Amino acid sequence: MIKDVQQEILKLKKEKDMCILAHCYQSPEILEIADFTGDSFALSVEASKVENKTVIMCGVRFMAETVKILSPDKKVILSNPVAGCPMAEMMDREVISLVKEQYPDYTVVAYINTTSELKTVCDVCVTSSSALKICRKIENDNILFIPDCNLGDWVSKRLPEKNFKLLNGGCPTHARMSENDVIKAKEAHPNTLFLVHPECTPDVVKHADFVGSTTGIMDFAKKSDAEEFIIGTENSIVTHLQLSCPDKLFYPLSKDCICHNMKATTLVDVLNCCKGVFGEEIVLDDDIYSGAKKCIDEMIRLG
Ligand code: 13P
Ligand code: SF4
Which of 46, 128, 195 to mutate for ligand 1's pocket (most ligand atoms within 8 Å of CB)? Predict the structure, then answer.
């Protein structure tokens, strides 16, 4: 049954000249039919290089918006219109404009997990893998880092020479994991390395053997000589690692680290997007497109 749906998707996407992108938090049956898998910015870059006229983004809304900004002439479809990222949507342009008035001398750094609208009032974007490098390169020593205070905290501790202002935002999925989860997981699996995403709280991150983006965590685990790992990020990564490294063992830090928004897209949703009866085409106003693009272009220049 799953194989039949996958075959139909593969046939339709070829006939209709479509490219399918899947963030690595998607389920395995979606990752199997994708043209590209990875983190959100890497997917947007891949999409900008392909000839296909239509791109289906299996992920959340801000990811589809980033694809559209990098490929304005392509038709970009968000695989399920209800899939939003609570962190990306927790701060809006009006609030940040007011905060900026209080910190006029600060460079505003936006995690890529923000809406395009919010990016229009920011100076530069970062991904979880480029945040440290880009913040280091910014000439201004005053940085207002939004929206994720956990990623911001992790970066600021590595750049003590800079003056960071953090706001109280973050990813509810990663924030769900606690120091107690780390203690319990390490007790249950003592001979493990603990790999963690910087969206987790500082109390969790301080126990890590490695801190990195989802791609960073997967690369580290694949190359490592260690045989057992506790994974402190969305639990799909545990499954993917277990499939790609069958000789190693991977344990989730918590059974609750599941992003329901990333899991909103089903294989049938993807099929219906290919048929043209589901999904939402991303359309951005000119001012939002150009304001958000400036922020992403600056990230590309510095990164
Ligand atoms: P990365 O894939 O960039 O590590 O981000 C994780 C995440 O939470 C995506 O929504
Ligand atoms: Fe947003 Fe967190 Fe889900 Fe990523 S894991 S989409 S940051 S809520």
Answer: 128
Of 185, 208, 300, 201, residue with least CA distance to 254: 185
Residue 223 and residue 241 in contact, taking contact as beta carbons nearer than 8 Å: no
Residue positions counted in the chain: 303
Q: What is the mean pLDDT of the chain?
A: 97
> Which amino acid makes up residue 49?
K
Tokens of 124: 């530069």
Structure confidence at residue 63 as a pLDDT band (50, 70, 90): very high
Q: Which ligand is nearest to the CA of 263?
A: 2
Token pair recorded at residue 112: 């890529």
Ligand 2 centroid to Cα of residue 11, in Å, is 31
Structure token pair of residue 93:
């342009």
Q: What's 148's DSSP letter?
A: B
Model pTM score: 0.96
Residue nearest to atom 6 of ligand 1 (CA): 214
SS3 4: helix
